Inverse folding.
């Protein structure tokens, strides 16, 4: 996160640039400590791009590309060039499964999922009756399947009784249903084609609910309404999310741009570094990273599509809103210099 002093300095420099009073890139650089210059240039570049000043944006992004340790500025320049200099959310057609396969197989994400399963298995109790679980934003359903199998292997579950799969994508639901029925032939499977906030009714009582990178598209205010609504029908709520500052900061703020620079710049680096055809890498970065990044940078709070929160903000919200629950596990699933994926396990209090 930026300090208040750095944020104020960035805002002052941006005001000068937008008013036409700013000097050269070199002049602006002297106002920022060296290790913060690349994200500072990204901030000014995206600010100008969101206002339609492509030439100005390009100059700052080019300066960032020359010194950045992660390809945040360089990939945005590539995207702008492909979009005729326009700063808009790229149109993505989800007809080719290869980009999703490349993204889901990234080392960081695979490690985070494995550690999530290990920590969740350790913190969950023994379930005497057949397990009933809900997978919110289930994707292909594999995470829930792996957790259920891990619980079986640990002797905490003897049978899978019922599975609820919720996702807005019919393609993902079709795949998830097939995977779950193959994994647990005797389980009752319920399909809900919806996002959590749009679901009119939630299924009946479940032992546990998984929400892995699937509820950050709601603002904190929406989370405060819909997560307690979900929790009323479960005994254990498992959340896994990125530790990122994309909810409360307003559009155009240094804090928002700095977080986007770190999270999505590093994500693009993973996509480009891990082996895949160049067209698959580009489609993957556009579909799963740049759509979110540009929404966050160009749309005001309440309109943008993503609202990742800081780990402490998630904890405060769930402590406040999940009445009758307590946090029994808080853990890091995977972390490195720019990104952390964490998990929280809330359990209904006894009695």
């Amino acid at each position: 996160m930026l300090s208040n002093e750095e944020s104020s300095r960035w805002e002052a420099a941006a005001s000068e640039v937008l008013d036409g009073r700013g000097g050269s890139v070199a002049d602006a650089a002297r106002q920022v400590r060296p290790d913060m210059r690349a994200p500072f240039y990204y901030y000014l570049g995206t600010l100008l791009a969101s206002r339609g000043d492509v030439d100005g944006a390009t100059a700052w992004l080019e300066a960032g590309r020359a010194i950045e340790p992660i390809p945040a500025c360089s990939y945005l320049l590539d995207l702008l060039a492909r979009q005729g200099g326009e700063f808009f959310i790229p149109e993505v057609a989800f007809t080719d499964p290869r980009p999703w396969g490349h993204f889901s197989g990234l080392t960081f994400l695979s490690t985070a999922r494995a550690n999530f399963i290990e920590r969740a298995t350790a913190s969950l109790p023994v379930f005497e009756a057949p397990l009933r679980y809900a997978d919110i934003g289930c994707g292909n359903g594999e995470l829930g399947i792996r957790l259920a199998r891990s619980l079986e292997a640990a002797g905490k579950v003897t049978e899978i009784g019922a599975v609820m799969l919720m996702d807005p994508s019919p393609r993902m639901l079709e795949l998830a249903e097939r995977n779950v029925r193959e994994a647990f032939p005797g389980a009752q499977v319920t399909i809900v084609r919806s996002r959590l906030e749009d679901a009119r009714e939630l299924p009946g009582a479940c032992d546990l609910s998984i929400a892995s990178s699937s509820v950050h598209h709601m603002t904190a205010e929406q989370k405060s309404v819909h997560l307690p609504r979900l929790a009323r029908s479960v005994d254990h709520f498992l959340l896994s999310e990125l530790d990122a500052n994309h909810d409360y900061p307003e559009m155009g703020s240094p804090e928002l741009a700095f977080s986007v620079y770190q999270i999505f710049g590093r994500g693009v680096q993973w996509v480009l570094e891990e082996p895949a055809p160049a067209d698959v890498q580009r489609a993957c970065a556009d579909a799963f990273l740049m759509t979110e990044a540009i929404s966050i940078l160009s749309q005001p709070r309440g309109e943008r599509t993503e609202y990742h929160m800081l780990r402490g903000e998630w904890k405060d919200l769930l402590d406040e809103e999940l009445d009758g629950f307590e946090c029994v596990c808080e853990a890091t699933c995977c972390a490195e210099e720019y990104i952390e994926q964490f998990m929280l396990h809330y359990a209904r209090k006894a009695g």
